[in-house]
Amino acid sequence: MEETIVIVGAGQAGGEVASSLRQQGYAGRVVLVGDEAHPPYQRPPLSKGFLLGKLQLAQLYLKPEAAYERAAITLRLGTRVDAIDRAARDVVLHDGSRLRYDRLVLATGGRARRLSVPGTDQGRLENLFYLRSIADVGAMRAHLVAGRHLVLIGAGYVGLEVAAAAVELGMKATVIDVAPRVLSRVTGPEVSAFIEGVHRERGVTLRLSATVREVAVDAAGRAAREVVVATGGVEERIAADVVLVGIGLVPNTELAAAAGLEVDDGIVVDERARTSDEAVLAAGDCASQPSAYAGRRIRLESVPNAMEHARVAAATLLGKPAPPPVVPWFWSEQFGMRLQMVGLSTGHDRCVVRGSMEKRSFSAFYLAGGRLIAADVIGRPADFMASRKLVAARPVIDPAALADEGVPLASLGA
């Protein structure tokens, strides 16, 4: 019988596994199952261009549906998988039917972490949103009206990107975070302060080191009216027309756990994306993978990682060598400014800045024990490309040379 590879999750990782299999000559049956009605699409524009109406729905799609048909990739969209029967090698669909697999790839991604405070336990509020899907944007758009006040809970990528979009739409925006600085999980204090300054200049109000105590709702219990925060023991009630919660992502590991696969902050895989079952692989946001760069197991939430990890899974399924590992990298756009990041700055003991923060053209390099471990780059794409190579090598670099724009980055670490 023809071999069947079933991919559960039609996001960017799942779509890339399917496409890579065909591009590399796989001749068996490929079935891509997704619970959304859409084929694989880009998620980053959801909080930027698509939210602002600058991108149309079709422009989000990685490929038109016809391309999957031409590649003989079977799409099962709007279809939820309820269980995995590893003994029978079946996935059980929500309608009770079964789909046989010879090998299975879990690319189940993640879901927005829910806020759990008084007021949010009354069911869905008509003006409180999470942003993870096309449907989320569709539900939120009608509320984004000039002059209204948008309160964003969470000063990460989603919160800051949507705050920038809201200002462009003529709205007022207030960002709340329990951390003392913005982007605290992904950048150093210097870059956080710079990003905070850009937002304040554009009229965004920031409430940092602030704990959300309650979402106060209207008399009917259907809409949020205020967000109650406490800062340094002082309580403040912030009036809100719209509330967006962006406090992180929860990996979708329930299917794997129920099937008896090893799970630990993600579906545990080896360096070839294999789970504890030799017939099952996992890739993307849902997977906890060993990282030679980090020297430990990590779970990365990023499009580049989803795509690169998907290619590793495809190579494993085809019995081919895996692509060389890539240092983690990320990007964000706010107020027309692109922030590009490579590496993980956690644990750095020194930050060296090259360029001018005032001119919004600089690179911040993070050192640990004299070695370069990460970089944040704004307005300098050439610096970013050079930084990717340098961070991968983790060289010991003279900080003075790193800060000196007269010294080419490419010459360092040689």
TrEMBL record:
Keywords assigned: FAD, Flavoprotein, Oxidoreductase
Cofactor(s) of this protein: FAD
Domain FAD/NAD(P)-binding stretches: 4-310
KW Methyltransferase (keyword) present: no
InterPro entries: FAD-oxidoreductase/Apoptosis, FAD/NAD-bd_sf, FAD/NAD-binding_dom, FAD/NAD-linked_Rdtase_dimer_sf, Reductase_C
Keyword Flavoprotein: yes
Listed GO MF terms: oxidoreductase activity, acting on NAD(P)H
Top-level taxonomic group: Bacteria
GO cellular component assignments: cytoplasm
Pfam families named in the record: Pyr_redox_2 (PF07992), Reductase_C (PF14759)
Domain Reductase C-terminal: 329-412
Protein name: Pyridine nucleotide-disulfide oxidoreductase
Origin species: Sorangium cellulosum
Lineage per the UniProt record: Bacteria, Pseudomonadati, Myxococcota, Polyangia, Polyangiales
